[in-house]
Specification:
Blueprint lengths: L1 E10 L4 E3 L1 H9 L4 E3 L2 H4 L10 E9 L7 E7 L3 E3 L13
Antiparallel strand pairs: 1-2, 1-4, 3-6, 4-5
Length: 93
């Protein structure tokens, strides 16, 4: 199974940063959890304001060539891009 991060952004309506590359690097090492915090995202784009996070990604398996998934979270959350029970090795019958 491969995860391809199409786009990821972290911040507020006043200031946000593109964190696509940061997230792609994380999933390239086999991690499917994205911690939504300033440390992981490379800094604080709007100090003193609670940030939001949005990600668009493809989960590519033999059974699923890569439908797009969109997820959002608030600062302090952790997103699991491959939830428990999701089959990463399922093949078409």
């Amino acid at each position: 199974m491969a995860l391809k991060i199409v786009y990821a952004v972290y911040g507020t309506t006043n200031s946000s940063v593109n964190v696509t590359q940061i997230c792609q690097q994380a999933v390239s090492t086999g991690n499917d959890d994205i911690p939504v915090n300033n440390t992981f995202m490379g800094g604080d784009p709007d100090i003193g304001v609670v940030k939001s996070f949005a990600i668009v990604y493809q989960r590519q398996t033999a059974a699923n060539p890569g439908c797009y998934t969109v997820m959002t979270a608030t600062e302090g959350d952790t997103l699991d891009l491959v939830p428990a029970g999701a089959s990463a090795t399922a093949a078409p019958r």
